[in-house]
Design a protein that fits this description.
Pfam families: RPA. InterPro entries: Replication_initiator_prot_A (IPR018777). This is Replication initiator protein A. With 189 residues, the chain is an alpha+beta fold. It contains 5 helices and 8 strands. Helices cover 28% and strands 24% of the residues. The strands form 2 sheets. It has a 4-stranded mixed sheet. It has a 4-stranded antiparallel sheet with strand order 2-3-5-6, with no helix packed on it. It is globular, with a radius of gyration of 17 Å.
Length: 189
């Protein structure tokens, strides 16, 4: 979002899910990684480094997974999943310290990239934006665990995302909204 005044915080539009949620602001991004078991147990992500558009269709016992990518972005990759694991780690660390968290995550790209072991140059910022686009545009239809129950769900990895920049084009921060089920699976550990 290009801001009119570089000193005023960027606000989400009224039609945005972010406008209805309090942000969880990640201070440093240096919480230890925490695996999300459900992310690792099934083929939710492409393993290819080149864009994959061929759907993933997986069935085992009573679990089905169908993953579809948008042609312009391709499917979310296993490297994109680092963003989700990082977000889960930040939420868990904050909860463990008695802080309030939210599905609405606000952060600086620099801290995220450092925390997941990536360089922090301009190229990596572009790759991060591409990863967020894939995480939002990938559609997954599956039976997933929600507490003691199994449910059929269709979702994307993030509901929406935004980049905040100054007039000069300097990135000041990014935000995304995690799906409710993902957030609940993190805090109900």
């Amino acid at each position: 979002m290009l801001r009119e005044d570089d000193h005023d915080p960027a606000l989400p539009g009224e039609d945005s899910e972010r406008s209805r949620l309090d942000p969880f602001v990640v201070a440093t991004g240096d919480a230890p990684p925490r695996d999300q078991r459900d992310l690792m147990e099934r083929p939710f992500f492409s393993l290819a480094k080149t864009p994959r558009n061929k759907p993933i269709l997986y069935k085992a016992a009573d679990i089905e997974v169908q993953v579809f990518g948008m042609p312009e972005h391709g499917m979310a990759t296993i490297w994109d999943a680092d963003v989700l694991i990082w977000a889960a780690s930040q939420i868990v660390a904050a909860e463990n310290n008695g802080l309030t968290t939210s599905r609405f995550v606000r952060f600086t790209p620099y801290h995220l990239l450092r925390a997941i072991g990536r360089p922090t140059g301009n190229h990596q910022y572009r790759l991060l934006k591409a990863a967020l686009a894939r995480l939002q545009s990938t559609v997954i239809a599956t039976t997933i665990r929600n507490g003691p129950h199994w449910r059929r769900r269709q979702f994307s990895w993030i509901n929406e995302w935004e980049e905040m920049t100054t007039r000069a084009g300097r990135v000041e921060g990014m935000e995304f909204v995690l799906p409710e089920w993902f957030y609940n699976s993190v805090i109900d550990r």
